[in-house]
Structure formats: structure tokens, C-alpha cells
What does this fold into?
Amino acid sequence: MRVNKFELNIDYQKAGLDVPETFPTLACFVPERHEYLKDRTRGAILVLPGGGYEYCSEREGDPVALRFLGQGYACFVLRYSCVDKKFPTALLECAAAVKYIRSNAAEFGVAPDKIFVMGFSAGGHLAACMANLWNSSLLADVLGCGADALKVNGSVLCYPVILSDPPLTHEGSVENLLMHRRDPELREFLSMEKRVGSQTPPTFIWHCADDGCVPVENSLYYMAALSKAGIPFEGHIFPAGGHGLSLCDGTSASDEWHYAPVPAAWVGLCFKWLEGIMNN
It folds into this structure.
């Protein structure tokens, strides 16, 4: 396995955005290309930790990448800009990461048409933004590429923030994206179930029914939007577990309630879903 970490180079001013004090970093976990793998290509997963757009949760970063690395995927963890960073700062960083992965697909042994984005909580919102807005001219123009370079081929949304309106949203995430300003137009735009369309890729989504932080309706509304648009998806609502579970076991737990054997099934279910996409 090769692991490296570097800062993404982005022209924020070209997008009318403030240059962050600390640049986003992309950690790359890539399997070595041994003789039995030299002629194969693998999928790539860009992992987006949660944290309410206030920070990037370590529990939802490297441990997740290592689990999916063990299944043969090249995994990348983006620690994106948070707190008082005007939208679409984090989305632009996410798009730059997708562009980097696709541009270096041959080096990583990655199939350029099998690049997935996986997000948790607020990172799930960012993943949904990438899944629905990858063809935005703003992203392509700033990054100096065609929209196809930014396309994601599937999304995995883990207890995601989707909705932007109270009382069903996670208000802290939306307020951070709004920079704590009143902006009804942007608030409405940030509700990702309203952005689903023909450009949206196949989706795997899961949530716990008793989530007291990000209500389960966020996933339910999104699944309804996917169904209406005819986008293939697989959804799982587990009866209990709460929020912020990550892998639901000791590899990512920082508290006793992070051990959740029932929703832990999401990992195996996701493996199977990804395998189906890879073989399609």
C-alpha cells in the first residue's frame, strides 16, 4: 500500500472565494500493483468525513478508507475547508479531488469511469452536492477542465444532511454553508433532493430511524427524489443506532454507543452494491 498526503492547489480567487488559511489535503491510500494486479483496474472512493461543516471527523476518514482499501479500492480522504467558507468552497475542493483522481487514474490503477464519492453526515451533503452538481460550469471553469473530468460514477451517502429547511435539516451544517447570513435563495439551492436529475449517478444510502441529529427524513426525501427521477439506488433504514456511527465497530468508535451491530451491516451491503456497479 502506498500512502501520501498533499495539499490541493486551487485558484479560489477565480471563483470569487476567499483563500483558506489552511489548504485542503487529500490523503491517498492506494494498493500496490503486484503481479496479480498489474493488468486490472480498480474503483476509487473519495471519502468525505462529516462534522457539520465545522470540522472533518477523523472517525469518518482514514478508518473508512482502510476498510474499503481492504476490498481492493483505491481510497482518498479529503479534509475540506470548513467554518465560514463561502459555498461552494468545499464543493470546489471536492471537484478538484475528483479531477486529480481521474487525471492520475493510470498511475493509481483506477478505472476512470468507476470513481465514487462517499460522505458521512455533512460530508454526505457534500457528496450529494458533487453527485448532483458535477456538471456545473462554475466548477469546470475554475478548474480548467471539461465537466466530464468531474463526473462521479456513484455516491454512497451515510446518514447524510440533505434537506435545508427546518425542522428536518441539521441547522448547524446549513448555517455554516450560509456563513450565518440570511440567504433564502442559497438555502433553497442547498436542499439536495431538489437538485436530483438525469445527471445524478446511482446511489447507496443508509440512515438510522432514531437519528436525533440529522432526521431520517433527509434520506427518505432523497430516495423519493431518486425514485421520481429514475435514478438507480439502494437504501437501508436501520431501526436504531443514532448518528455518527461511521463503521459501527471498534475500528472507528470513540464512545460506547458507536458500537452498533445492526447498522454495521451497511458496510457489507455497500461492498455488494459497489461490486454490482463495478461489474456493470
